[in-house]
């Protein structure tokens, strides 16, 4: 499987995700940035955090291109804004573009399905002229927060601890991604 990780400048989150994922699997992985320049190294924070984890990376930034989009079987973005911009720019590839959290986390999928179900109940109540249950409204509000919380922390400009926090978040969701892909391969 060919996987493309995408962030903004391709110097922090996506190269970190690429390096961690390559460390965990044998899949073909690249990273790119929506507004990336060509050939920039990974940020010092990214390099340092990866090094502390025993993961090497000889990263050079690259922008998202038509060829990369065609190459990828799965495109994983770091934020919903990245996802939405790519889907708008590459509509033919929309079915393979996701944020990391929404694709990898089974709790996200469960929350999304529960939200759709809750909206259906809300519409049924409105159509029937019934009073809307306050618990249903509260449930919808909570589920909306869950499904909207799909961004990976951007460490750009932050200190070492910020990069370490991003690493920890990526490591959790990339482990879920590995598990999901391995289950699909079976």
UniProtKB/TrEMBL annotation:
InterPro entries: LMW_PTPase, Ptyr_pPase, Ptyr_pPase_sf, Tyr_phospatase_low_mol_wt. Keywords: Hydrolase, Protein phosphatase. The active site is at 7 (nucleophile), 13 (nucleophile). Gene3D superfamilies: 3.40.50.2300. Residues 1-130 form the Phosphotyrosine protein phosphatase I domain. GO terms for molecular function: protein tyrosine phosphatase activity. It comes from the Bacteria. Belongs to the low molecular weight phosphotyrosine protein phosphatase family. This is Low molecular weight protein arginine phosphatase. The lineage of its organism: Bacteria, Bacillati, Bacillota, Bacilli, Bacillales.
């Amino acid at each position: 499987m060919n996987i493309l990780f995408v962030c903004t400048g391709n110097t922090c989150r996506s190269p970190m995700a690429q390096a961690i994922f390559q460390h965990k699997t044998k899949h073909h992985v690249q990273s790119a940035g929506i507004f990336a320049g060509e050939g920039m190294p990974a940020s010092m924070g990214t390099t340092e955090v990866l090094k502390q984890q025993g993961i090497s990376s000889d990263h050079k930034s690259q922008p998202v291109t038509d060829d990369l989009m065609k190459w990828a079987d799965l495109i994983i973005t770091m934020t919903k804004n990245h996802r939405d911009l790519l889907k708008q720019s590459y509509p033919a590839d929309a079915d393979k573009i996701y944020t990391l959290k929404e694709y990898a986390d089974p709790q996200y999928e469960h929350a999304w399905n529960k939200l759709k179900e809750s909206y259906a109940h809300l519409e049924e109540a409105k159509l029937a002229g019934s009073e809307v249950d306050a618990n249903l409204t509260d449930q919808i509000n909570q589920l909306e927060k869950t499904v909207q919380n799909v961004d990976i922390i951007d460490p750009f400009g932050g200190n070492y601890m910020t990069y370490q926090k991003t690493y920890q978040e990526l490591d959790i969701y990339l482990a879920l991604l590995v598990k999901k892909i391995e289950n699909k391969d079976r």
